[in-house]
Design a protein that fits this description.
mainly alpha; Transcription Regulator spoIIAA; two-stranded antiparallel sheet; 25 helices; 64% helix
Length: 626
């Protein structure tokens, strides 16, 4: 079969007048090697695809990068606080990984950097091992980042980009909503100006808040409320302006103008940031630490890939770009590995920055690089002013971020349209609130896979009869009744090891309802995959029916399935004369094998040929009588 396929393709090329034939051996060699080199280079260095376009696109990308830098300035500091890291690490994470991911990723618009969900998981997992913000804490976070990058790169290099499709959208929405609740409760102590160590569990965190609420600082509440008011008003009046940045600056101005940052009043401030240039760093590569962090690294790696790929896909639907999931895995992996040695913690695609980048008119991935350069230049001038930013303002910004994480629109849609998806969403949401965060991802993903396998393991096996006038196969009814001798069934779903027991049971049930049917036609036009178990099951079915004096026929088998049947030997066991491409040929063949005496007594007119069979029986009786 393979030789014939090659011959057919060669004949198509020779017969095609539009194919230009090479004229010399040198041309042949060039045609064979030059495109191959381009393909290899483009896979190793994806930026070569869009780099030539910068001659026309650099202005648009430069302006889009400036917009993105302004947006990430407050986010970077806020996300670092969520992760338990010093504020500057959030900004470093917005600079280095964004550059690397832009160079080695697949999307032209995706911007990488710190994210709320990953920051929260880092705090929840590493916070129990070391004091947040301490030197040991930072080293463990950097090691976690390297492990995350290695996992992501390995998955991408193995071309496993499609793995992310097994985690349903409901899992992501449920986890994100749960993370938003945890983030909000973790910031209330800063809103009220309280000093206590946040707990990893939600219930314990609420308990701590209630125990310390009597000592709240009213000035911190004023600053947080003022910051929130500025953000809300600006978003309504000037939705395209960086409302969070204005809110932070306004909160800082209010604090300094009123003197609330003085030691006597005690509104806490961020403090001056170090150099904006990301310093070199070295993670803690001890074997004990690696073993301890590996489960969390796997969860963050998968979560980061889910974020990055889903965001890239949503923008690609608008831009018309074709994505390579495995290449995006590689880009995210390299960005985390390199970032860990430049004081960056685990990063992923940022929905806010990516959306702003696309709306700002970015044409190539260079916009992400320009955004990092702009952020570095901005920090050169404003780093010293961070000393006046009140932590209460930062907490208010994070509360806004947490609220925006809850996708109310899709949550309502899921609850209305699918009970199963609603259940997955709810379980993931509750797991995020009451279990360790990395296990919440596993619970949601495992539940999605189990439900998917359950659905694929129970394909529909439907009894069908031809509609009298159009011959279209429809469900059996009181008007469209089944033939007593000839049954037709349709299988909707793949025939693989997990499904075959169910398929065999359903066929047995249908046979029990019509035990006199000795001929069976199986439609396989909706089957896209079959494995060894499926092949063996079909062969066993044919042999059992033939052993009982009946027979089984097939039609609508796709080429790929036919190839598997041929290679396995099942094709010869079933018989070439029992496999049909057309429905009409299959029905005509089976009808020729029916018992004419039964047709004579039958009062049902299922097929057009029924009257013909009755006439044949009548003529045969007349001849035998004569």
């Amino acid at each position: 079969m393979s030789t014939r396929s090659v011959a057919v393709y060669e004949q198509d090329i020779n017969d095609n007048p539009d194919v230009e034939q090479p004229q010399s051996a040198d041309e042949v060699k060039y045609i064979q090697t030059e495109p191959l080199m381009k393909i290899i280079l483009a896979k190793v260095f994806p930026f070569l695809k869009w780099f030539p376009e910068l001659k026309q696109a650099w202005k648009a990308d430069l302006l889009a990068g400036l917009t993105g830098a302004v947006v990430v300035l407050p986010q970077g500091v806020a996300f670092a606080m969520i992760a338990g890291m010093p504020p500057q690490y959030g900004l470093y994470t917005a600079i280095v990984p964004a550059i690397i991911a832009a160079l080695f990723g697949s999307s032209r618009h995706l911007i990488s950097g710190p994210t709320t969900a990953i920051s929260l998981v880092i705090f929840g997992s590493i916070g129990a091992l070391a004091a947040p913000g301490s030197e040991q804490y930072i080293k463990l976070v950097l090691l976690l980042t390297v492990l995350v990058g290695v996992i992501q790169f390995t998955l991408g290099a193995a071309r496993l980009g499609s793995l992310i499709n097994f985690v349903s959208h409901s899992v992501v929405i449920g986890f994100t909503a749960g993370a938003a609740v945890l983030i909000a409760f973790s910031q209330f102590k800063h809103v009220f100006g309280l000093s206590f160590k946040n707990a990893a569990e939600l219930v314990e965190n609420i308990k701590l808040l209630m125990e310390h609420i009597h000592a709240f600082n009213p000035y911190s509440v004023y600053v947080a409320a003022f910051t929130l008011a500025i953000i809300i008003v600006m978003r309504r009046l000037k939705p395209t302006w960086p409302a969070m940045l204005f809110g932070m600056v306004s909160g800082g101005i209010l604090t300094v103008a009123m003197g609330w940052n003085n030691p006597g009043i005690g509104v806490k401030v961020v403090g001056a940031l170090p150099s904006p240039l990301p310093p070199l760093s070295m993670p803690d590569f001890s074997l004990a630490s690696i073993k301890m962090l590996m489960p969390t690294a796997l969860a963050i790696a998968m979560m980061g890939l889910m974020e990055a790929v889903s965001i890239a896909r949503s923008v690609a639907l608008q831009s018309g770009q074709r994505l390579n999931g495995s290449q995006e895995f590689i880009g995210q992996g390299i960005s985390n590995i390199v970032g860990a040695f430049f004081s960056s913690y685990a990063s992923s695609g940022s929905f806010t920055r990516t959306g702003v980048n696309y709306r700002a008119g970015a044409k190539t991935a260079a916009a992400g690089i320009f955004a990092s350069v702009w952020l570095f230049l901005i920090l050169l001038f404003v780093a010293s002013f961070a000393a006046y930013l009140p932590i209460a303002s930062m907490a208010a910004v994070i509360l806004v971020v947490a609220y925006n994480l809850v996708d109310f629109h899709h949550i309502k849609a899921i609850i209305k349209t699918s009970l199963t998806e609603a259940m997955i969403l709810t379980v993931t949401f509750l797991s995020t609130l009451f279990l360790e965060l990395e296990f919440a991802i596993y619970v949601g993903a495992l539940m999605s896979i189990v439900i998917y396998l359950k659905n694929t393991a129970t394909p529909k096996v439907l009894s069908r009869v031809p509609e009298l006038h159009s011959r279209q196969l429809v469900a059996a009814t009181s008007e469209a009744q089944q033939c007593p001798q000839f049954g037709i069934i349709r299988v909707d779903g793949d025939l693989y090891f997990a499904a075959m027991t169910y398929v065999e049971e359903q066929i047995a049930i249908l046979k029990a309802h019509m035990p006199q049917q000795k001929r069976l036609l199986i439609m396989l036009s909706s089957v896209n995959h079959i494995d060894v178990s499926g092949v063996e099951s079909l062969v066993r079915l044919v042999q059992e029916w033939r052993k009982e004096g009946g027979d089984v026929y097939f039609y609508g088998i796709k080429w790929r399935l036919m190839h598997i049947l041929y290679q396995s030997g099942a094709y010869h066991i079933i018989g070439a004369d029992h496999i049909f491409k057309e429905k009409e040929a299959a029905i005509e063949k089976v009808l020729e094998c029916l018992d004419l005496n039964t047709c004579e007594r039958c009062k049902k007119r299922v097929f057009w040929e029924c009257d013909k069979n009755k006439a044949r029986t009548h003529n045969n009786l007349q001849l035998s009588t004569a």
